[in-house]
Amino acid sequence: MPADPLNSTEPPHHGPGPHGAAADGAGPGAVEVRRSSRRRRTVSAYREGGRTVVLIPARMSGDEERRWVRIMLDKLAAQERRRRPDDGELAERAARLSEQYLQGRARPASVRWVTNQNTRWGSCTPAEGSIRLSHRLQGMPDYVLDYVLLHELAHLLVPGHGPRFWRLLDAYPRTERARGFLEGVVAAARLPNVPPARGE
Predict the structure, then answer these.
(1) Where is this region: Disordered (predicted)?
(2) What domains, with CATH codes, occur in the chain?
(3) Is the pLDDT of residue 51 over 90?
(4) Is the pTM of this model over 0.70?
């Protein structure tokens, strides 16, 4: 079995963007501003790996840039809050997944989001029955979130990553797809900044 993407390190982004725009902070809070001479008035933003990319017109002043970065971060956060389950919904989701794929044998005492896991996507403490998911998963596809939850649920039954552990996850039809998605996120975070396409 290849290296487990749940235990892969996603390095934080630092340094200038393709047009010299500085990134503020690190990890999931990092912001990269990309200026475009083709962009006249519109501002847009999206998540890329562990950072947020904000696209702005090249003529914008520093004060306008800072104001728009705040606006776009607030907008993205509001969208993600609407999409992501809270801790109670995570626990319900875990219970459904355990019933569907593990015959209900994995019964966590708690399932919650945490913000201090930047080197792994999820973790569990079998002795306490607790599962913690990295907030970096928020906004990722549902099948990826389900895979990470199932991965940690399986650890309540089997502590290591031996054949018996992977046999449990074989029941989930999107295991390989989810692993590929997470490996892609990690690989993208390690790439140097790629200059934008011509005209951006």
Answers:
(1) 1-44
(2) 12-83 (no CATH), 87-187 (3.30.2010.10)
(3) no
(4) no
